[in-house]
Amino acid sequence: MRARRGRGEGSICQRKDGRWIGALSVGYRQGDHKRRRHIVYGKTKREAEEKLSKLRHIVYSGTFVTPDRIALHDYLRQWMADGSAAWSGATIETYRAAVEKHIIPDLGAITLQRLEPQHIQSFYSALVKRGVGCPTIEKIHRVLHKAFEDAVRLERLSRNPVERVRRPRSQRRLREALTPEQVEALLIAAEGHRLGALFVLAAFSAMREGELFGLQWADVDFTNRAVLVKHALRKGRHGNFELGATKTERSQRRISLSRREFASLQLHRRRMMTEGHGSQFVFCTERGTPLIRSHLLRRVYYPLLKKALLPRITFHDLRHTGATLLLREGVHPKAVQERLGHSTIKTTLDLYSHTVPTLQEQAVAALDKRFAGEKERPA
User: What's the predicted TM-score (pTM) here?
Assistant: First the structure.
């Protein structure tokens, strides 16, 4: 007779329908501490033994995750509810749009454990056929990756299926930068407007939109001619405005002001004092409330561009303009990185180096100057 299987090796038997079953103890349930067993099936005894051997290896290596039968749509909604306390209103809206509009209609019925990379790959292909743009697919990809990354961390999945999926990549949009002459035309058009100083700082300091809207008078150092970037104004979860932290920890920084920026801020401060609303925000509405982005663009920014005979660029392109102007004037990229609040200098160079052809010209000029006396050697 064959010896009995040892402890922890599992058991194999044949069902009445001819299939073979392998069972292995994978621990105990929480609460009642009853033993949990995981079942594998095979058409032959050998197939069942091979599956049982693989299962045994996974369990002993500590990577086994108890099958989670929750449907993907339930998991994603639960994941969003649990994480909403730590996310900004804009992030929640981005996640909700990706989950409810795209992910759940296609993948929501599949259980979390049964979702495979091929399901996601086919999902991306279907989105492309429906005409969904690559930037939107990239957002969906990031949402899925984050959701499954948290599932792995909580031991609801053993691996992240998104990591083995290829997604369509969109080409980075080349942002437009105004020339010095165009910047001057915009600032002349904004002279006399109650928010004229906003556009001076946007073009010269290269601060982010939320950082400009969230700038407070307490953050302006009039003695040392600088501003401290410590907050950003964002749209909250319930449509209200929230003054939160900057985009990253490195985004908290000190920005020295040029004479023109400083003068415009001094003039702006006197104008705000005459309005008498006593707002804590440097740039605000006539009632002292935070600026509303859509209103600013429609009522102030776009009309100023039209008045200055300039192309209809985005407000964020003013930040890009500020960075480009500094690099074209020969400012070291490290200084530009610190002014922009980028985490690494690589981010700065990746985003802006292609817009500064003079950098290549400077490099060639330096080589010519260094080796001007060298004679060409025969090959």
Answer: 0.64
